[in-house]
Amino acid sequence: MLLIHPPVAKPCEPPAGIARLAGALRGAGFSCTLLDANLEGQLFLLASRPKATDTWSRRADRAAAANLAELRGPELYSAPDRYRRAVADLNRVLEMAGRTHNLSLSMANYQDPAYSPLKSEDLLRAAADFRENIFFPYFAGRLPQLLGDSRHATVGISLNYLSQTLPSFALAGYLRHSFPGIRLVMGGGLVTSWLRNPDWSDPFAGLIDLLVAGPGEDELLRLAGGANLPRKAPPDYSGLPLTEYLAPGLILPYAASSGCYWHRCLFCPEKAEGNPYRPLPPDQVLDDLAGLIRAATPVLLHFLDNAISPALLAALAARPPDVPWYGFARIDHNLADPAFCRDLRRAGCVMLKLGLESGSEKVLAAMDKGIDLSLVERALTALHAAGIRTYVYLLFGTPAESPTEARETLAFTVRHARAISWLNLAVFNMPLGSPEADMLQLDRFSEGDLSLYTDFVHPRGWDRKAIRRFLDQEFKRQPAIAAILRRDPPLFTSNHAPFFCGTASVTE
Q1: Which of 114, 109, 113 is nearest to 94 (CA)?
Q2: pLDDT tens-digit profile of 141-177?
Q3: Which of 72, 153, 276, 299 is spaced 20 to 30 A from 441 at the CA atom?
Q4: Looking at the domain covering 323-507, what would its CATH class be?
Q5: Nearest CA to 431 among 292, 275, 231, 217?
Q6: Structural domain boundaries of the chain?
């Protein structure tokens, strides 16, 4: 079985999805091969770039190899301006390559005006037109090496992000044309969201043999002829180019759960899609991590959970993994406890991502976030005092918000700017299956049959245009907030932010 992580996604850490599947298959005695076509495909384009015609592009072209090397070493992360230039120059090379195909292309994005990733008919066209895709020369050179000897009867494509959609279907079209006997399976986060839509009707029969929703281990084991594993096997990253990712050492991603243990926020796709919460026992997580750390010697652990559970945070504090780590966490009473935060920091926690969403009590209550601002204030203070950096996520335009509440968020952020290391600002998208959708007048973003979100007539007149104007002209211009936003690592954002924590153990 060949498992593929397709372009385009941030190439800074190995793909956890196919590694998890490999762990299950290999743990049951079946062989499989992993291909990070995202990393390889981007490096292929960077090496085969078109001739540069302007000063910036010529400079970026000349510096491409040096910039790649610097992003893989620790020194660059102590020089933020030089880091920004290296990332911008590499993106410039990909941008120039994309222009040869009329694409908007970067290390994290892929947009083709000729095809919409939200329309199944366009994805089928992308599959039929696979030779036109910018990654076709890479696919055509690489895949026969892996499939030419017929070792692999099944190919799995892990599709998680919209930016991967068009290349994934070009890849599927190429495989169906060139290896017609292959069984083609597609899964991943985006596919799961499609299949969870109550109006789903499979438009890809004849191209994709099987679409899989949710964790795919059991389905692939069934296809391989095996039984379900009684115990979840740890992920297996062997066979991936672990030294080639764009980070100063290996970032090891690990998911201790799927779904979300809170599962109550009205705006959350996890709730709208009905994804169940499935945690691993903390002792198993710590055992898995100990084995992975011995085998791969990472410089940083990245927990992929929607929120690291309180039980796992306590277990990490009691039994530190000996490698710095970060991930999403819910703001709760544990994080407001200064002693507990100090324990987390001693256990290697360098950053926590916090979904605050709003600085308005009214909006938090309407979302059913289960937190109040007093708790948030205590948590930010305790984390800051312990030396744990925070990457705070804010969400504007939910149905309960108006400019009044948005300005409360502005004021709250300014008051606590010293304890907020980085900010992520987003405009609310209503999931199609959200409980709130039935109470609002909806207006679809797109006619695409694969759209996961819908626009709506805001009950308080707070439309997307007004929100963006507020963010650009008011929120981002506040000096304390502007200073936070300037710190954000371009493109790689939270994935590289821990390397800017000023902690020697992260990068040395």
Answers
A1: 109
A2: 999 999 976 678 999 999 999 999 999 999 999 999 9
A3: 276
A4: alpha beta
A5: 275
A6: 2-50+100-224, 323-507
How far is Cα 344 from Cα 215, in angstroms, rounded to an integer?
A: 29
CATH number of 2-50+100-224: 3.40.50
Q: Could you tell me the sign of the dihedral formed by the alpha carbons of 171, 177, 182, 183, in that order?
A: positive
Q: In what order do the strands lie in the sheet with 210-211?
A: 33-36, 2-5, 154-158, 183-187, 210-211
- Distance CA(111)–CA(325), nearest Å, equals 32
Within its chain, how far is the Cα of 233 from the centroid?
22
Alpha-helix residue ranges (DSSP H) falling in 297-402 = 310-318, 338-346, 361-367, 373-386
Distance separating alpha carbons of residues 409 and 394, to the nearest angstrom: 8
Angle among Cα 413, 417, 423 to the nearest 5 degrees reads: 70
**DSSP-assigned beta bridge partners for residue 423:** 392
> Among 172, 213, 216, 210, which Cα is nearest to 25's?
216
The HSE-up count of residue 149 (CA atoms within 13 Å, CB side) is: 5
Q: What's this model's pTM, rounded to 2 decimal places?
A: 0.94
Cis omega (within 30 of 0) on the bond before 8? yes
Structural tokens at position 126: 């992308």
